[in-house]
Amino acid sequence: MAKKANSKRKRKPRRTVRRSNSNRIRKKLALSSVLVLCLVLVGLFIVKDYLSESETFDSDKYFVKGIDVSHHNPILNWNSVLEQNITFAYLKSTEGNSHLDRNYPYNYELAREANVKVGSYHFYTFALSGKEQADHFLKTAKFNSGDLIPAIDVEHSPANPYSKDKKYVALVVNELKVLENELYEHFGVHPIIYTNRDCYKLYIKGNFGDNIIWMCDLQNEPSKDLDKWRIWQFSHKGELPGIDGHVDLNYYRYSFNEFKELLLP
């Protein structure tokens, strides 16, 4: 009997271990299921956002239409662009302190010849010297009377990682201020800032109150609380006759007459 009692006492810990292991397995499975569900939901939102993008200009509210292009697009047939009543186009000129957009000089000249109002933008590389980036942009891009006000593209990318670290955010903002001020001193007008909702909240809001905002929002019209927005980029997958591949689509907020506010003297 004593041996049997001892035997029973030895088995109890084994059953406890089994239950403990079983509980850990259940918890891991539950956590894995939650993570999978979260990934599925994120994927659905991404797909939903992509599918909800408009592929053409279909607004009854906005009449001044524009596009923006970079080396990711082919050199466009700008006469076809004009025939579709597209008023303006922003072209990527530079990025950081050394990158040049290979299609920029061709698109710039062809767009002007077709009488499309054209502007140049610089893709800001986070935390890199604002002075060096301004010098690179001003040395490379072309600016003529009647062109659109220069623009700065502020968005996350592989070169511009997302972070809420306060020191990093402050560095991004400070160098952007240097870049913005260099362009302001050169042109006498504040450059337009292109951004999206996340970057606006992190870097632009409260820091660049004098700048016109060009807002990218693929689902909703920019908030009415954002008084300074003038251009709304509403699609990255526009399909236009005579243009190969997708192109970014934009609306100007007000009338053709008010559109003159975007032009260099």
Query: Which fold name fills CATH's third level, the topology of the largest domain?
Result: TIM Barrel
Overall spatial form:
globular
Please tell me the overall pLDDT: 87
CATH class of the largest domain, please?
Answer: Alpha Beta
Total domain count: 2
Please identify the structural class as seen in this structure. alpha/beta
SSE string, helix = H, strand = E? HEHEEHEHEHEHEEE
- Provide a count of the helices: 6
- Report, as a whole number of angstroms, the end-to-end distance: 105 Å
Sheet with the most strands?
A: 8 strands, mixed, barrel
Strand residues, percent:
15-25%
By CATH, the superfamily of the largest domain comes out as Glycosidases
Number of strands: 9
Radius of gyration: 27 Å
Topology of helices and strands:
Layout: H1 2-52, E1 64-69, H2 78-83, E2 86-95, E3 99-100, H3 104-113, E4 117-123, H4 130-140, E5 151-153, H5 166-187, E6 192-196, H6 197-204, E7 213-216, E8 229-238, E9 247-252
Parallel strand pairs: 1-2, 2-4, 4-5, 5-6, 6-7, 7-8
Antiparallel strand pairs: 1-9, 2-3, 8-9
Helix pairs in contact: 4-5
